[in-house]
Task: inverse folding
């Protein structure tokens, strides 16, 4: 085999390749990288001869390596924040009441419309760097706080720029159907038409959206309205996602499945029929325990039914100012286990392999051919990634074969 550019040795691997070993684990392993892709991931003793010649070698000091984390559902570009709304909710107001009064998402819309692209990038970059320092190498970023064509496109441009500035792989999603903007009150149909006939084709034409999402909920859009947005996305050849059955059972899971959506997300109130439809359509469930926790929702998604029917489960932060101000991917893993009762292995697969599938990126596993996004963690076992609350065990992050300077990795101050 020809020489690698980078060779990571003296590590244990959580390859996350499905198979017999939990976590796809390989003890005493090595990873070889060439031109940004993995060319070998396996037991060190099986390293093909010639690979090490000329390679930069990294001694992992017995740490664990996982694929780079993939946070497949965030709203990390926004103006302002909603700490005051948090205080109101704690004195008794509900998320839905605040939304119906014109607060909630719409208050973030006002702050986002008032922000320039540079301001949006600057505030979001700080948040993205926190995720990146905690092991995220791919992130999905939604629009949805603009709700007019210019601001929705500005959000998507800001998201693209964040990718260029930080080096984190960014996938963008147009979420024009997130809430009904004030100026369209009483004219719902006209707004859905604006999303379907203007925002979706324009975002597609400009190459600014990699997918289209909608919020199917009593306080947002009906299944029929979401279907109109989906029809436009299908026409534009963009993959679909759906905020489905978060606060009530709207038949969102079944709608997402009917359209062959990549994922249905949230799903606290998904019905058994919805789960079956998702399984048949191979639509993944994206679980967002940060939102359930922060909204103090007693409902949990039907995890046992997802397992029984073989619906892949992803886990994401849902980072947003209203329902999940969660800047910590490992925090999402912890909540997924403690609140939703996933196993640590399911949770980690949900933020690596399954999430990569939702976004359509060739990452999320350590195997030849995959993008060389790796994280070396200062832990004694991969279950610890979902176990500690707080702390920053990420020691080194490698993105597409490039080692990120340790100063940019939270907790990367440990002597090597
Ligand atoms: O994923 N559910 C809808 N959208 C976001 C919340 C948006 C907000 O409250 O600002 C979510 O939870
Ligand atoms: Fe969301």
Result:
């Amino acid at each position: 085999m020809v020489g690698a550019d980078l060779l990571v040795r003296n590590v244990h691997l959580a390859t996350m390749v499905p198979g017999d070993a939990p976590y796809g684990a390989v003890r005493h392993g090595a990873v070889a990288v060439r031109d940004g892709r993995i060319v070998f991931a396996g037991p060190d003793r099986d390293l093909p001869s010639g690979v090490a010649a000329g390679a930069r070698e990294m001694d992992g000091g017995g740490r664990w390596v996982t694929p780079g984390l993939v946070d497949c559902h965030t709203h990390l570009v926004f103006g302002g924040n909603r700490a005051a709304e948090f205080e109101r909710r704690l004195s008794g107001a509900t998320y839905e009441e605040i939304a119906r009064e014109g607060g909630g998402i719409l208050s973030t819309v006002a702050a986002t419309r008032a922000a320039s692209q540079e301001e949006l990038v600057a505030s979001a970059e700080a948040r993205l760097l926190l995720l990146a320092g905690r092991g995220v190498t791919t992130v999905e970023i939604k629009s949805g706080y603009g709700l007019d064509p210019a601001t929705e496109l500005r959000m998507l441009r800001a998201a693209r720029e964040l990718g260029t500035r930080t080096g984190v792989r960014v996938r963008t999603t147009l979420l024009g159907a997130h809430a009904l903007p004030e100026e369209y009150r009483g004219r719902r149909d006209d707004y859905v038409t604006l999303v379907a006939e203007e925002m979706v084709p324009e975002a597609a034409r400009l190459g600014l959206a990699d997918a289209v999402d909608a919020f199917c909920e009593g306080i947002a859009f009906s299944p029929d309205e979401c279907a109109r947005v989906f029809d436009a996305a299908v026409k534009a050849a963009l993959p679909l996602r759906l905020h489905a059955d978060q606060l009530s059972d709207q038949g969102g899971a079944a709608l997402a499945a009917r359209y062959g959506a990549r994922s249905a997300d949230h799903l606290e109130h998904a019905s058994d029929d919805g789960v079956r439809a998702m399984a048949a359509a191979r639509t993944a469930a994206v679980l967002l325990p940060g939102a359930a926790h922060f909204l103090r929702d007693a409902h949990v998604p039907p995890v046992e039914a997802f397992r029984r029917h073989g619906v892949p489960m992803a886990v994401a932060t849902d980072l947003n100012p209203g329902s999940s101000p969660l800047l910590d991917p490992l925090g999402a893993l912890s909540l997924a286990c403690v609140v939703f009762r996933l196993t640590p292995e399911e949770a980690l697969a949900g933020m690596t392999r399954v999430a990569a599938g939702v976004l359509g990126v060739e990452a999320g596993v350590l195997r030849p051919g995959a993008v060389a996004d790796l994280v070396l963690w200062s832990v004694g076992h991969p279950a610890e990634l979902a176990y500690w609350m707080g702390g920053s065990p990420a020691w080194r992050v490698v993105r597409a074969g490039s080692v990120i300077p340790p100063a940019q990795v939270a907790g990367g101050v440990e002597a090597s």
